[in-house]
Structure formats: C-alpha cells, structure tokens
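Please describe what follows:
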Amino acid sequence: MRQPALSLAAFSMGAAFTLSCATEYVTPGRAANLAEADRSDIRAELAREPAASFPARLAIVRVQAREYRSYSQSGGGIAAGGFEVLTVQELLSDAQLKSIEAWREVAGVAPVNRLLLPAHMNGLDDLRLAAAKVQADVLLLYTLDTRFEVRRKSVLPTGVISLGIAPDRDAHVVSTASALFIDVRTGFVYGLSEATASEQGLASFWSSQEQIDQKRIAAEQRAFDDLITASAETWRGIARKHAASTGDPSDPPQLVSDIL
C-alpha cells in the first residue's frame, strides 16, 4: 500500500513544480556594454584611423551580455570576452537587409553567422576577424536593452515576474536598441545610433508567459526597426565624411553627435 502513496506524492510534487514554472516569466538578459567590447587605453584609441574603402561592405552582428537568456531564446550564444554573440536572427529580416544594401556607398551586407566565428573568442577583435572572412569593411554591432516596469518599478534583467494576478496599475516594457559602426581593419568607430520603443497595456496580457513575451518581442522589434532607420541617417553622414565620392548636396546636414 506504500507504493501507491509514494507515486501519488511524486505526482503531486511534479504537478506543483510544473504549475510554479508556468506561473512565472523570466525577463530577458542584459544588453552588452558596447563601451567595454574593446578595452584599450586612451592613447591607443585615439591612434585608430579609418581604413575602410567605399562603397563598403557591411557585416552585421548582435551581441548581448554574457549568458544572455530570453523566453524565446535559451542559450545558443557564443561567449566573446565580456559579451555573447547571438547568431539567431530574431529581429533582422530579409527586407531590412535589402534596405541596408540600398544605402548609399554600401556594396553589400552579410550577417555574421556561427560558421564564421572561432570556437573561442576573447573580444571584439575576433568579431572583426569574422567580418573580414566575408570581405567586410565595416562591422555593424548592435545590442538591445529591454526592461519591464510593473507598478512603476523596474524589473531587473533575468528577474522573475509572477503571473496569474494582474497588477492594479499599468505595466509596460521598454526596449532600447544601440549600434556601433566599426572599421574591420583598424577598430576605428565611425559612428553610433540608438532607438527606443515601448509596449503599453501589459497588465491585460498577464495570464501567460507566451502573451507577455509577445509584448517583449513587439517592443524589441519596434526598437530595432527604428534603429535601422536611425542607422541609415548615421551611415549617410559616415559616407559623406569618409567616402571618396562627393556627397549629394541635397542631403540634410548630419548631426555632429552622430559621427564620431
């Protein structure tokens, strides 16, 4: 008679574990600190010079903080120094690749995939090497910082949100996408771009992990879409300043802060 009792107890424990897993949502990991991607002293940084030829070939890669996780992407990243390279294209679409190829002074675009990356990476130099394998001149490095806010309090990355009882105040998710244009040959930083988007009304989607994650992805996709638009403007200024060809006089003036 003890065996059925043990089986029932085991089943109860398993059911409780399953229920607890289904009533929590873990927020995505941190953004990569792009300022820490390539540590060097100030003298060495100032000594870097642009060396890309124009029209330039671009290589695109997404990085996040080490051991990045999200509900839809658990593991699979490749560690590289203080950050993690994500080769799964969750946000970048074929249409966006074509739009980047249409930028002035762009000869081609290629995402950096897993086959190009060494088994062990120590930092940005290894990403530049991977970009060189596809004959890229400029590396477009980007990351996303996504935060949930519940009852006016921020939920930290990889924090736990309890489901089932909707908050009595509106909850929302905010995502900021940031990018750097880096010379593959020298590591010179040509410019930067950034965009932020949010998804409101999260409280009405509080019943499941999938519904909350749909809001997270929607915010990140909007931020990334806006980042591509902002990056197009940044690239226009980069091309005007560094390309040998004369810029179009009809182009609007570029903000100095966008071009480093």
In short: Confidence is low (pLDDT under 50) at residues 1-21, 245-260. Helices lie at 2-22, 42-46, 94-101, 124-132, 209-242. Residues 32 and 246 are 36 Å apart (CA to CA).
